[in-house]
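An example makes the point: we let one protein speak, the chain in one-letter code, the fold tokenised, and here it is:
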Amino acid sequence: MNSEQLIALDQAHVWHPYASMDNPPPAYPVASARGVRLQLTDGTELIDGMASWWCAIHGYNHPHLNQAMHKQMADMSHVMFGGITHAPAVRLAQRLVDITPQGLDKVFFSDSGSVAVEVAIKMALQYWHARGQADKNRLLTVRNGYHGDTFGAMAVCDPVNGMHTLFSSVLPQHYFCAAPPLGFERPLVDADLNELEDQLQAHHQNIAGFILEPIVQGAGGMRFYSPAWLRAAAELCKQYDVLLIADEIATGFGRSGALFACDHAHLQPDIMCLGKAITGGTMSFAATLTSSHIATTISRGAASCFMHGPTFMANPLACAVANASLDLLAENDWQTQVSGIEQGLRQHLAPAARQSYVEDVRVLGAIGVIQVTEPVALVRIQKMLVAEGVWVRPFGKLVYVMPPYVISADDLRLLCQGMLRALERYFAS
């Protein structure tokens, strides 16, 4: 098929994420991807600023990841995990325990970030049930949060400013408080936590866990907040006997400048969700980690086990490539990579702050955000970005990048300059 035929069939039959099937916009057909470049079927080459929704941290077609998958396929691509184990999963679990915050020493594998959040919620609920406190069956979270698209995950996303208002009448009802104030280096003020403490004080008898994205709120607004706020929130959770659930699906594996965003606050959550970059962007895979105390308490409860078990749990192919991705993080010195991206983003995005149509420019780790004064029309600005030779996927008022860690200084400069030119053209037209 040529590009036109491919696009026509796509529009006729394929339903894309958060897209209409009524006069759907054309998608850009990719023929191949290597390093930080996407090759479209018409020969157009794009520098990828999204790392495939933040997960392809080592770029595309990396030989070490490919080799790991080929080697594992020769033995087995999949085997059920009920009553069976295998070396890739055991090794990966041990490595995740070693690199995540101390005390997270039990690992439950699943197949997507949303499911990792569902698992975390069920862990929290089943823990309190096993403790004889079944009334602790609600969650507390902050506004502007995003945790996934399945029903349990949707219920702890922002119910007003999020993407799931349509389902609010059928979702479990949880407690919400104000989002953390913007500013990674913002000094903590007592009033910053008033609403959180009010909710805990009033409802802690019914709250099983406090779930949030540490330091970086992603799809809910690309908001960065301070480690001081996170530390203080964690202390309140301890004070009111509420489990702390850290959703590190977007921030894990170095994206925020720390290996895990909780590390910025020297924080040890009770439960942590991982996904996205866990396999270096090659396969859908996720993990939920918790403490021995929580795992043992659940296991000694009425059910005598944790009541969850995905069909593709601990898929050997995914575990093998996840181990290979951890190899690359260490070998490539991810700290130096991310620090270099942060410096480049600060330098190359800074000119945007002078534009009248820009409200804010913010950078943290390998995340760069331009917040504009009005929501952009995606189809129109996407064409302008592609014309500049960059792949960036804005949403709302946010035009942002989370490039692969392997991006060169030159490609990062071209990526940022392409963003700025597309924005200038968009707001001039």
About this structure: The longest helix spans residues 409-428. The domain at 65-331 is CATH 3.40.640.10 (Aspartate Aminotransferase; domain 2). DSSP finds 13 helices and 16 strands in the chain.
